[in-house]
Write a structure and sequence with these properties.
Blueprint (H helix, E strand, L loop, with lengths): L2 E5 L2 E2 L2 E2 L1 H12 L4 E8 L6 H4 L5 E6 L8 H15 L3 E5 L2 H14 L3 E10 L4 E7 L4 E7 L4 E5 L14 E4 L31 E5 L9 H10 L3 E4 L1 H5 L20 E5 L5 H7 L4 E6 L12 E4 L2 H16 L1
Parallel strand pairs: 1-4, 1-6, 4-5, 5-11, 6-10, 7-10, 12-13, 12-14, 14-15, 15-16
Antiparallel strand pairs: 2-3, 7-8, 8-9
The protein binds flavin-adenine dinucleotide (FAD).
């Protein structure tokens, strides 16, 4: 039976959602054991939020883990993985993970697949899927040797509740700080609007079909009517009509809302890579051959400037 180690990602005292996404994916694999590795200044603080989701929480405390810095994490993980000999190690494909994962794989002489969107156990090791050529195709990679280091795409798996009530195992990393060539100086957050499109259940995506900035209020009001957040294709972000943090796609965010309404979006593969996992997709496009219709569950072939006001009127009628 395989055993999986999942590296808990946390920032400023909060466990990041991707941790629960990875733990869910690991549990669904039917692994013999799923152990979460929590490295923090005082890991007792965060451990209770993880124990329901794993068979065990390996708690590694120390000042070296107060903020993320890849060297202490890597040193500790090399030692821990050497002791536990897991079949696979899951690390988020985040800024944090991309700093750590490759150097960890080199230190362990292990195989690594980044930006993984699916993984299953194979006859020997794991089969891991990831997009290639900016999402144009999905390649399955064989990872026959252990441990397989799998860097998991964020917002790709849906986190699910669990009640495993895993035990907490204290583990001493020893001296991991000395000799470090890098050090954490400060965390500077990019100013954001506070809107996280990856957390919204209804998202209205705006594409170049909106034509001009002066047409934005139409879609903003529509989104408000239906309790949605606005997202965008890249040209809309490049034009400065919406901030980069709401861009959907291969160089933006991957989202899995309950409902995604694409307005005037052609459906380039770079965009589809970020929203094809939505439960329901509705597309409005005046071109019946637009590729967005190949992933849409419902499609309206018409001018969005006619469709959106008509929808708003209908919704108002239904609400009253
Ligand atoms: C390396 C790389 C990374 C990229 N990353 C991303 C990414 O993360 N996200 C992303 O979105 N793109 C990304 N792109 C860009 C991508 O290739 C497309 O250019 C982009 O998605 C197109 O955006 P769009 O659908 O809004 O515009 P267009 O392709 O111009 O499509 C506009 C659509 O609106 C329709 N339309 C026009 N007027 C109306 C109307 N009045 N009513 C209804 N429909 C109308 C048209 O029929 C057309 O289908 C990337 C490209 C590269 C090279």
């Amino acid at each position: 039976m395989s055993s999986i180690l999942v590296l808990v990602e946390h920032r400023q005292g909060a466990v990041r959602d991707v941790t629960f996404e990875m733990l869910t994916a690991a549990r669904k694999l039917g692994a013999g054991s799923v152990e979460a590795v929590l490295m923090a200044e005082n890991c007792d603080v965060l451990a209770p939020s993880i124990t329901p989701h794993a068979n065990k929480v390996v708690c590694v405390s120390g000042p070296a883990f107060k903020e993320f810095s890849y060297e202490p994490y890597q040193k500790a993980l090399v030692k821990l993985i050497g002791e536990k000999k897991p079949s696979a190690v899951l690390i988020a494909n985040s800024a944090f993970g991309t700093d750590l994962g490759p150097s960890l794989a080199v230190a362990l002489n292990a195989g690594l697949v980044s930006d993984a969107v699916a993984f299953t156990e194979a006859d020997s090791g794991f089969s891991v899927s990831r997009g290639m050529y900016a999402g144009k195709l999905v390649a399955d990679w064989a990872m026959p040797s252990e441990p397989a280091i799998i860097m998991v795409r964020q917002s790709n798996f849906k986190p699910e509740p669990a009640s495993l009530g895993g035990a907490v195992e204290k583990w001493d990393a020893g001296d991991v700080a000395s000799g470090a060539k890098t050090k954490f100086i400060s965390l500077e957050e990019v100013p954001t609007t506070g809107i996280d499109i990856a957390k919204a259940s209804i998202v209205v995506g705006i594409g170049r079909g909106i034509k001009e900035a002066k047409n934005m209020p139409l879609v903003q009001e529509f989104a408000q009517d239906i309790g949605a957040v606005l997202a965008a294709s890249r040209p809309v972000v490049d034009a400065g009509w919406l901030p980069k943090e709401v861009q959907v796609g291969s160089s933006g965010k991957t989202i899995k809302p309950k409902l995604y309404i694409a307005l005037g979006i052609s459906g380039a593969f770079q965009h589809i890579a970020g929203m094809k996992g939505a439960d329901t997709i509705i597309a409005v496009n005046k071109d019946p051959k637009a590729p967005i219709f190949s992933v849409a569950h419902y499609g309206i072939v018409d001018d969005l400037h006619k469709v959106v006001p008509a929808l708003r009127t209908k919704i108002k009628e239904m609400k009253s």
